[in-house]
Amino acid sequence: DLTGIPNRRYFRRQLTHEIERSRVYGVPLSILLIDVDDFKTINDTLGHLMGDVVLSELCGAIRGILRSPDAISRFGGEEFAVLLPHTDSTGAAAVARRILKQVSELALTDTDNRPIHCTVSIGVVQLQAEDATFDDIVRRADAHLYEAKRQGKNRYSV
Question: How many Cα atoms occupy the beta-carbon half-sphere of 7 within 13 Å?
């Protein structure tokens, strides 16, 4: 309810369906795993209500740049997954760049009208032949997400 987007269970079902479709029709499929950088700091300094506002606004911003066949879901507390059917890793990287730009331009303020700045890190992967299951592709995306974090956050890793 908070973010207005589907949950992890929905993402699992959709990704499993899209993996099968990708294999049957020979079309590319990519996913993004997105994590809000330093979200604990936002919650600890501004409160959980403002943290909820950040998550809600962030989801709206991301949803606004996706195509109709694309889907965003809440993957965890401050993690989100984006399903990109018919998209190779080059196209997925372009979406990741647009998300980074959109998030950096969010004009959020706290209750005292002070600006709130947030960034995200993104793991980008395209379905590969060795990805036998949902867990395989998600594990690779998660590894890329943490690589983006290690490289300094506010970036994506393919």
Answer: 4
68 CB burial (10 A radius; 0-12, 13-18, 19+): exposed
Q: Are 54 and 42 in contact (CB under 8 A)?
A: yes
Active site residue 20: no
Q: Give the model confidence (pLDDT) of 115-128 as tens digits.
A: 999 999 999 999 99
CA dist 128 and 109 (Å) reads: 41
Cα–Cα distance, 8 to 5 (Å, whole number): 10
Q: Among candidates 25, 30, 28, 33, which has minimal Cα distance to 156?
A: 33
With the C-alpha atoms ordered 143, 54, 98, 154, is the resulting torsion angle positive or negative? negative
Q: For residues 137 and 107, which has the higher predicted lDDT (pLDDT)? A: 137
Is this structure's pTM higher than 0.85? yes
Considering the candidates 18, 20, 78, 147, report the single residue annotated as catalytic. Answer: 78
